[in-house]
Amino acid sequence: MPVATRFHLARRAEASHSYGFVMIFVVATIILAVAIPETSPWRASIVVCQAFSAVIACWTSDAPRRIFRLVLIFSVLGVLGAIGLGVFSNTDSTAGRTMNVLGVIIVAAVIIRGIALDIRAEGVRGRAVAGALTIYLLFGTFCGFIYGLEESLSANPVLHASNSTLNDDGSTSANMYFSFVTLTTVGYGDLTPVSGTARATAIFEALVGQLYLVGIVATLGGALGRGKGGLTKELAPETVGAPPTSSDS
Prior knowledge:
About 70% of the residues lie in helices and about 0% in strands. The protein has 9 helices and 2 strands. It has helices at about 5-15, 20-35, 45-60, 65-90, 95-120, 125-155, 170-185, 195-225, 230-235, and strands at about 160, 190-195. Strands 1-2 form a two-stranded antiparallel sheet. The longest helix has 29 residues, at about 95-120.
């Protein structure tokens, strides 16, 4: 077997892991964003989880070396920047929240590329569905950080709490909580958007989140295990037979 072929097979074997590993770090990012107090220096661990998500996403999707290196460099710089902000400033500053948003975008872009290549090469498999579900979680995380960025750039609060026991001071915890309540259309009503940008983001998140589930995830689930042409068949319109003619009776 040629060396190049063996190398390619080794790379594919290395990339045979599921996006479930990435999903674990995405869920960890969400939990840390909600659980760690705003003043704690440990909030830098959020960026660390994002960095691991990006690196593992590159590994899982068999990303080219140049992309892997760029993601690795950005991840290292992001972690160092988060540690610096935690020591000298605040990780919930505009710079810190911008870093979080960019981290989510990079992870999502790597996963989307990997899913597209997987479907083109081998059809829809469990890994593609796991990747699609990870994108769904990343979208909620992205919107949570967007609410925080809007808070940092606004002179007034973007969320309002219905009672004094809730945190409506623009904390990442409140923003992330509100994001996933909106994404899942639970709508508790304890936090509500009060600025125009936050309301627009909430509408966008709720619509895109539901359309994504019933469109992308449901379509991939329907094509699961049907081979390379499974997705095409799933998207193809159903053909209706012609009505019988008098000669057929």
